[in-house]
């Protein structure tokens, strides 16, 4: 392909180097040479060990846990690349940290998702590639182009290949209905919704299930699974109401705090996630299946580099 002749470069910091290597392998290039050092006082230093002058540079760095450290690595690397005369710098953020702080929920609250967008743009990023933002309007927080890729097609392909019968896709809340409907249409399933309330962050209570799930194979879909309280409560409620088996899927496996323990003890059949966030060895239990997003991001990078339409990847 012609993109080999146009100085395309892939760099990564410490958030998910394995994903960056997969993307680079898909593109037929090597990950750019760089070093990230941490001084004894905690300051981060980035060194770019090859020329990037005039290059189209893509920095792969999900801002996952430890979120603040990975954000600083990204900002400093983008600044270093800008000062080294890179032609264009695209931040590839498979997971966008602080996305759940996208609006003022009470007086004097910050909108941290907007703040992160401002800082990243100020550092020198000229384009952003991300996946399944918690709130789609975060695209508008940026004053630079944002390519917002969906994870549903990857998840749908997995369930189609699995060959499950009598499937109902369940949204764990009203806000996720659009995502659930998309998955349901792709795998030929019906749709149900869980009506829940969240009395405080990371705590949810199932109130009611809207839709027919009795005797069905249920697939719960969400964008993020964090402490897994929502999905585990949903599994119990669905089984109590007559579901035959319950699977769950999500794009971003944050899986913090008691998540792994909860999933391990739950009657959930399987949890399917992607590698937007790397899973530590202690989190790789038998119930969790990880799908790679490297081909999707690789195609997006090719299309951005070649000035082609990225929306084709949404199909």
TrEMBL record:
In its UniProt entry, what is this protein called?
Answer: Ribose-phosphate pyrophosphokinase
What does the note under cofactor report? Binds 2 Mg(2+) ions per subunit.
An example GO BP is: ribonucleoside monophosphate biosynthetic process
Q: Which UniProt keywords apply?
A: ATP-binding, Cytoplasm, Kinase, Magnesium, Metal-binding, Nucleotide biosynthesis, Nucleotide-binding, Transferase
Q: GO CC terms for this protein?
A: cytoplasm; ribose phosphate diphosphokinase complex
Q: Which gene holds the coding sequence for this protein?
A: prs
Q: Which family does it belong to?
A: Belongs to the ribose-phosphate pyrophosphokinase family. Class I subfamily.
Please list the residues that bind D-ribose 5-phosphate.
198, 222, 226-230
- State the oligomer form and interacting partners: Homohexamer.
